[in-house]
Amino acid sequence: MQGVVNPTGYRETAADATQVTAGVACVWESALPAGAEPFTQRVVPDGCVDVVWWAARGLVQVAGPDTGPVPATIGPGDRLVGVRFRPGAAVLALGVPADAVRDGRVPLRELWGDGAERLAEALAGAADPGAVLAGAVVARAAAGGPADPLAPALARGLVGGASVREVAVGLGLSERQVRRRAVAAFGYGPKTVQRVLRFQRALRLARAGRPLAEVAQVAGYADQAHMANEVRGLGGVPMRGLL
Fold first, then answer.
1. Measuring CA to CA, which residue among 187, 193, 198, 191 is closest to residue 230?
2. Is the pTM of this model over 0.85?
3. Measuring CA to CA, how many Å separate 24 from each of 84, 147, 229, 238?
4. How far apart, in Å, are the Cα atoms of 160 and each of 50, 68, 87, 130, 229?
5. Contact 81, 36 (CB under 8 A)
6. CA 61 – CA 82 distance, rounded (Å)
7. Cα(first)–Cα(last) distance of the chain, in Å?
């Protein structure tokens, strides 16, 4: 909520060159001191997939692309370490299309089998679990072969406000092919990709201090009322609540 400070010490580290090649956006960590009150963070759709290690649970799980807000509670003494993929970039590391984990919190063992159990053991004893987790997903992505080369162009076209038909023509695809590729890469159909990426652009602009009327125009909404409806639909609260 507005005015509430996140007490978990959340921090991100930008991906290095090798990680970027595998589609990683960042490595992040969050921890809550022992004795603190449990903290619940509103996680809103961003088009990304995260692979997350919950230290207290000894569990590695996949947080799939969300279509609405999801509360995530961290308890006192808990520590989370995660690798976040760019939108459309997680498929090779997961081994399944992104829509298979949409709106899900899926144990990694369901996708990697025994490899996930070995990873959890390695993380428990690691001095730098972020590096271990990132190394594991990078290696898995490399073994998965080349990513869909059109996923970045799909994202650029859709967030730029082009219609699905216009994006299809620009890429030399049919509208049906655009939909199939979008669902596999992002976990969403093209229209939802547009909504989520536009929503995230609006959040970035608003956090930078831009007036909301200007944010609506620059982000590509019809007007401020349109933005307000979309933000509430995807974020669960008005823009000022998210800020």
1. 198
2. yes
3. 6, 13, 31, 30
4. 25, 22, 15, 33, 20
5. no
6. 9
7. 8
90 alpha-carbon distance from chain centroid: 9
CA distance 64 to 47: 9
Joined tokens for residue 201: 């652009």
Q: Are 32 and 6 in contact (CB under 8 A)?
A: no
Write the pLDDT tens digit of every residue in 4-60: 456 778 899 999 999 999 999 999 999 999 888 999 988 999 999 999 999 999 999
Reading the block at residue 123, the tokens are 């993380």
- Judge contact between 186 and 65, C-beta under 8 A: yes
DSSP state of 4: P
Q: Give the residue from 52, 46, 43 showing the smallest Cα distance to 72.
A: 43
Tokens of 169: 């023509």
Q: 29 and 81 in contact (C-beta within 8 Å)?
A: yes
**Which amino acid, one-letter code, is at 151?**
A
- Read off the pLDDT of residues 77-132 as tens digits, 9 standing for 90 and up: 999 999 999 998 999 999 999 999 999 999 999 999 999 999 999 999 999 999 99
Whether residue 53 contacts residue 84, with contact meaning beta carbons closer than 8 Å, is answered with no
- Is 28 within 8 Å of 10 (Cβ atoms)? yes
* 153 contacts 77 by C-beta, under 8 angstroms: no
Q: Is 174:137 a contact under the CB 8 Å cutoff?
A: no
